[in-house]
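User: Here's a protein and a ligand (guanosine-5'-monophosphate). What would the complex look like?
Assistant: Let me lay out the input and then the predicted complex.
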Amino acid sequence: MTDCIFCKIVAGDIPAKKCFEDDLVLAFHDIHPLRPTHILVIPKKHIASLADVGTEDEPVLGRMLSVAQKLAAENGSGDGFRCIINTGRVGGQEVPHLHLHILGGPEPVGPMVKNLKE
Ligand code: 5GP
Ligand code: ZN
């Protein structure tokens, strides 16, 4: 996808602070970190969102999760972390290329989501 910002990062056309790369995935630091550790793990192949995956994507989906612990530990979050995949309008997804947020740091990340009824 030529107009996709994360595809441009994969292609090297836009700079990013990369922290891991293999045949299937690329990981880099979020440009606006919300916690001391805030890493994005993306498939190198363009997949718009978790709503667009098929069974053929299971290897890359597994890889995205299986590298999370190593990346968290290597980047200041060895005592736990949170993974989030925002999906579509309701999920609050802003960049339409599937990405896994890894959030952490020395302190607890905080409540999961706000209860809208409170
Ligand atoms: P979403 O809301 O789609 O789940 O999250 C998109 C994330 O991508 C945001 O946290 C945002 O800060 C990050 N982001 C957007 N553009 C760029 C960029 O060009 N480089 C990097 N490193 N992160 C980006
Ligand atoms: Zn893309």
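Summary: Residues 83 and 102 are 5 Å apart (CA to CA).
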